[in-house]
Amino acid sequence: MKVIDELLQKLPKDIVLVGEENTRPFECDGLSVYRQKPLAVVLPETVEQIKQVLKICKQHSTPVVTRGAGTGLAGGAMPLAQSIVLGLSKLNKIKFVDVEKQLAVLEPGVRNIAISEAVAEHGLYYAPDPSSQIACSIGGNVAENSGGVHCLKYGLTVHNVEAVKILTINGEELVLSRDDQGLGLLAVMNGSEGLLGVIVEITVKLTRTPKLARVVMAGFDSVRDCANSVAEIIKAGIIPAGLEMMDSFAIEAAEGFAKVGYPLDAQALLLCELDGSESEVQAELEVVLKVLSSASSIKVSNNEKERLDLWKGRKSAFPAVGRLSPDYYCMDGTIPRRHLADMLEKINTLSKKYKLRVANVFHAGDGNLHPLILYDANIPGELERTEEFGTEILRLSVDMGGSITGEHGVGVEKLDAMCHQFNDKELEIFHQIKAVFDPELLLNPGKAIPELHRCAELGAMHVHHGQLPHPELERF
Amino acid sequence: MSDNLSKLQEEIKSSNGLHITSSWLNHTGVEEYFSEELVITVKASTPIAEICKVLAKNDQVLPFYVENQEQSIGAAYANGAQDLSDSVLGVQIIDGSGELLNFGGQVMKNVAGYDVARMLIGSKGQLAVVTQISFKVMPRHYVGELKPHIKTVERSALREVIESRLKAVFDPRGIFN
Question: What is the pTM of this model?
Fold first, then answer.
């Protein structure tokens, strides 16, 4: 292949990986059911080398799939058959920290947790904390607009990014900042899934570490009571730092794994973190305990160890569920909070219909659901049934006025579901926005936005903001 | 869909040149407000003061700096003068072809498709008619003193090119001026 020859010729040999064995580790991201080996993988060490890669790929009309740490859960970094993978993990320097202005300037390969570790001595941290934060990189976080458990109070990646420097497919540098006059191009780059440019530098906002954080754990006899208490806490004027909910199956799995004292007899569990000064936390705690008076059990962390223990169960829920089943499929829909209880009931009904178990772990505070569907890929047809089940959950999310993805992105996984959330005209606008930045469609083409003919073939019934075309019909 | 919007769509489809203002749009009122969801959806010509009054009943506020309370929310959005980007959740627009389109929504977390709802902040009525906007609101006591965000950076030549191409995407006939 000419493109491979030229990459090998013009770049240091040790940063270009070719051949089946060398490229295999890059054949998938965190969504390992979809795999594809690329033509080659390039792991540049400088921005100049990235420019060189883009130049060569453009000349040969070879698509480029940019990759961070490869922890994405939607196949956004999965290679395309005739593509080059541009892995940015070697660009991992923290370039500059401005303690006074609470800013850090980062290369794209800096790991999420490494930012907080580097600035901890100044009483600062980087707020967004996706569960893969020990491994995932900030460039990938921006590309996916990653979330975490603290989004309700501290925002998603887009709320915590001050500026990015991108390379266009032509290798031109473009800095997009909050201080820009004009359209909100910085926001567009967040969550653009590698389709618009290559992110080579990120300036993030650092947050002052709260003096105190305490967690309230509440067990409930009924899922509905637990879901309603989420709305009640917000109604009482409290914005918890984290507000997480788990169903009985998830409680059982997490407790079996982490052994931290979760109430095994509860139908649902709420974890509510409050942070701030001592007096702020105390005042919020009093309100929250009052709201949670109908809970069947209550525990409040009294020190940092207890707090981390209570979180440990939740944070290990995914691997804990992984112990119970050969495979599981993680969904990522969001819905308005008021529909939480209804959604859980519907997921349980679907679970029976598809004969597949589900563990529910929710970022309840912001209505972001992570149902984990348990399946066994070795049983013929089970993966297909799982995907159908998942698609039904995503359709429900849209019908309830929510979204098919809250923080994981569309990638290759949710292309069909996109047809349900957006109509042809809206999808066409998305395609044209891509063409503005990347007219030859070389950057991660085919991901994130479905082709219109794909939607037509699906024959998806389009629904907007819960307004069904025929509201009189029973649909669940 | 309200008759008002259908009429606007027809007007845009048959127009060769339009200058959008809040009074021309004349689309006011709170569409939906769920205090326990921290979400309000308002029609674009609604005066900011009116929105604040509704929110105040639940001790909630718009968590961004507003220079002029008499201004409409659509004008504040289109001029991008206030840093309201972090609070925008979704928009309904009519593009230059007269199509009614929705981007974003009423939920806090939503990464489906490009973030057009935030991209059009500062579009000054040049790309589309923004008819409705959804915002995240906050309890008053969580919002500190709000200051104007000063936009200082000069526009690069590349940004100019990208913005003019984006205008052509939303307003292919170039009718919004």
Answer: 0.95
